[in-house]
Amino acid sequence: MTIHSFFIFDRHCNCIYNREYGHTPQSIPSTSSSSSDTIPGQINKNNDSNSSKLLFGILYSLKTISNKLVDESSINQLKSFNLGQFKIHFYESLSNFKFILITNVEVEELSSVLFQLYSEYFIKYVVENGLSPVEFSETGEYSKINNGRFIEETDKYLQSLSIF
């Protein structure tokens, strides 16, 4: 069981954070810090790639379809779905930030983990950070989350999970 990727999209459909985890010794070292216990992988390298745009499109389409299948009186939420050999876990905050984890198929639903990432780490290190932008732009310096503390703490939290 493995976590492969972690994505955050803002309310304007922009990928503002992308973390890919390398679970093999040949992986590219992390750029988040210079310590020897960093998790291998890439940070914010594929924010503008077609794969992140396709992922957002799939989630948007599935969420729209699932909402149209039920009557208006019931609450219907897309939490996870399988796609080939991967399972995609999804959480959307009230402010329309979308948190996505991509794992192996065997992993149980991770909505509580995604809520924890939002409520404990995103709120604390991004939203409440006075130096962080209120709105993320499509390009430029404020187009993605580069907060080292946020990256470090989310990596520690995800690494502490038994599925990592």
UniProtKB/TrEMBL annotation:
Localization, per the record, is: Endoplasmic reticulum; Golgi apparatus, cis-Golgi network
Give the record's keywords alphabetically.
Answer: Endoplasmic reticulum, ER-Golgi transport, Golgi apparatus, Transport
Q: Where is this region: Disordered?
A: 26-46
Q: What InterPro entries does this protein's entry cite?
A: Longin-like_dom_sf, TRAPPC
Q: Does the keyword RNA-binding apply?
A: no
This entry carries the following GO cellular component terms, namely: endoplasmic reticulum; Golgi apparatus; TRAPP complex
Keyword NAD carried by entry: no
SUPFAM superfamilies linked to this entry: SNARE-like
Output one GO BP term: endoplasmic reticulum to Golgi vesicle-mediated transport
The similarity annotation says: Belongs to the TRAPP small subunits family. BET5 subfamily.
Q: How does it assemble?
A: Part of the multisubunit transport protein particle (TRAPP) complex.
Kindly provide the name given to this protein in its UniProt entry. Answer: Trafficking protein particle complex subunit
Originating organism: Candida maltosa (strain Xu316)
